[in-house]
Amino acid sequence: MKKYFVVLVALMAVTTGLFAQYQFAISPVKMNVLYLGIDNPLSISISGVKDENVSAEINHGTLSKVSGNEYIARPSRSGNATIEVFAEIDGQKEKIGSMEFRVKMMPVPIAKVAGKSGGNIEKTDLLSQTGVIVDMENFLFDLRYIITQFTVGVATDKGDRVLQSNSADFTPEQKALLTSLDKGTRVFFTNIKARGPAGVVDLRDIFFTIN
Predict the structure, then answer these.
(1) What pLDDT, in 10s, does the model give residues 118-148?
(2) What is the rounded distance in angstroms from the CA atom of residue 136 to the CA atom of residue 141?
């Protein structure tokens, strides 16, 4: 029986193996990871077989063909998931190869200012920023979260001052407040919300002390 070469592309790393009498390669896979709650893009192809004669299945969740050799995987639970690749050969559906993926929860987005999520900060570093950003910290996908609001608060001898922004950027009033701060002042960023693929999420507060 003819041997077929399988290529299943998820992101970055190369794995080869032997499944029954069929040689297959899975490349490149970035740590063989799929994430819950988002679309995981895959490219699946078999050398010598037209894309329309190639199919694939996942053992839990959904695996949908987008077009050509492009697929979207959405696993339904954490742990492991196996993707099997099939070819239609002489009118018969034959399994060519399979690959096991780790399925993980998405990491929690982290709000940062000047690349920090808290601690001491130079006033010049704080004032050079335009606002609050989201860092996924080594997340493998180009997944975007957008800050939709945050509050800047300062405790002073005259009482607390709290100012809100309804975007990712400092308002002029917030900027003026930060400009007025003295060394040793505590600044807190709270009520931070960000919009992502699964909707709006609350992010952890940030607490700074001005150097």
Answers:
(1) 999 999 999 999 999 999 887 767 778 999 9
(2) 9
